[in-house]
Amino acid sequence: MKRITVFCASSFGTEKIYEEQATALGKTLAEQNIELVYGGANVGLMGAVADGALNAGGKVIGVLPNFLRSKEIAHLGLTELILVESMHERKTKMNDLCDGVIALPGGFGTLEELFEMLTWAQLGLHKKPIAVLNVNGYYDSLIELLQTMTEKGLLKEVNREMLLVSDNIADLLDQMKNYVAPTVGKWIDKKNV
Question: SUPFAM superfamilies attached here (predicted)?
């Protein structure tokens, strides 16, 4: 993997460990010569992951919609800042630039980005590993929901397993490096629930 896209919050949240792990992830990517692609902001966990990579000598590409740049949140110390016109164009560009995706703790935006990447993978539009760094159990409820979706016949087990999960950065990156995309289609019928 040459580049990983990281989706995460533009705030720090209530637990210091979120910022610490965001910084550690950025640093680890730099140490492994993996470029960071992220949302381009200098605030919250987004700024922490970027600074973690930059401070360790890594390359960081930010992708920021113009309307957010006008709010003066653009990180000015990046290797490259790509400006786009819309949130959708941002996600498309971030997908085009990366070999895999990691979600750190975040809110609606992070979940929307994560689930769009999962949906694209489920539909066979890419075969990239998609992961969550489950910092301090942040994503436990989401993982439980995905299991419920599978048990209720609305998500195939093989598609649920596309989401890689760990609370350890090294383990998560190892899972991503060894990931093999499923070869079955998305659709579920009554015979195959």
Answer: MCP/YpsA-like
